[in-house]
Structures are given as C-alpha cells and as structure tokens.
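Quick log. Single chain, no ligands specified.
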Amino acid sequence: MSKDYVSIIDVKDHVGEEVTIGAWVANKSGKGKIAFLQLRDGTAFFQAVAFKPNFIEKFGEEEGTEKFNTIKHLNQETSILITGIVKEDSRSKFGYELDVTKLSEEEKALIREQTEMYHTYQLLIRNGDYYRLASYAENHYYDAYMVVSKDQKEALMTFVQVLAEPNRRSRKVHLQGLDPEAVYYCDVMQREYTGEILMKGGLLIGDLWGDAVSRLYHFEKR
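-> predicted structure:
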C-alpha cells in the first residue's frame, strides 16, 4: 500500500516502500525508453525514474505506453502526485531514486491541464526574472515564488500550500519585482492593485484547504 504524502527529505526512511510524493518538476532528461525527472517539494530535490518496459509489463502495451509518454512529456514546473518504489542508488547525486510505475487518470488529466497552462505562459516562465517569496524549508507550511517579465508588464505567482496550518484561514504574500507605480489586474482575484500595494502590503491568500494544494495568480499591467 502507498503511504500518504511523503516529503522528499524523508524518503531515506522509506527505502523499498511504495510512497506518494507531491512535488514539482524542476528539470527532466532521458532518451528512448527511460525518463528522469528532477523533483522538488520545498524540502529537498529528488530524482524519479520511469522505465517504459516496466509500464508495459504492468499495464499492457497500449496503456503502459500512454502512461510512460505522459511522464516523459511533463513540462518544467508541472505539479504532480507521483507514486513509486524508493530505491537507494549511489550513482544518483541525490542518493535515492523513485522507481515510477503509477499514474492515475485524475493525475493524467491534471497534467494535461497544467501542460496547456505552461504553453500559455511559457515565454514569461522562460524569459522572466525569478523571485523566491517564501520557502517551505524555512516556514514549514508553504512555498511561494513568481516570475516577472523584463518590462514588468506581466507576472505569474505560484503559491503552494504544502501543509495546511490549523485555524489559519488566510495569509499574506509580498510580491517582488513589479513596477510600484503601475496598476495590475489579477485574474484570480478579479481586481486591480498597484505594484506598490502588492509588494509592500502583500496579496491575501485564502480559501485553500488541505495539504499539497496550489494556486496560480496571473498579473497583467493595465
């Protein structure tokens, strides 16, 4: 049986076990029948390995190939829940690897949705300036980071609630890199803010319930 979500920093305690990790794709590589995913979750980095023959053996030719291709074509910064067996591997710079063979239909649908989102904002993500707003490793509850276009006309902020905090309904995140004199429209909040208010006063984050949930905020200069 797979466990409830395991933080990457704790995988060393689960060698030989099947675990589920909620993480984001930091990088990927591979060729042909093998795919390597570098994952992060706010506690550490980790590598997941997907081997196509293992998928075919477990799910059959058609379904196994489909599941492997879904993993192989994940985009950077895609958030996923991924299940596999933790293996100790001295060849890996992380010391351990996740042998992946499981991806649910719900997760596949979410990946397709996030892939479409990535294509919408790919130029901003690739070419913008990156800012770390909060670190789960420091606060033990959430991550927040953003990308701002070079001309400060567009920004994308990701808030990740790694662990829910009891009795907390909202929190503020102070954005960075915006034009303080400009007015920005936020698609999620459906309202306008000045850059100065977003950076000094902060954006109120609310209505996120449970662990391993995230929200994307897009800002466009008016």
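The mean pLDDT is 83.
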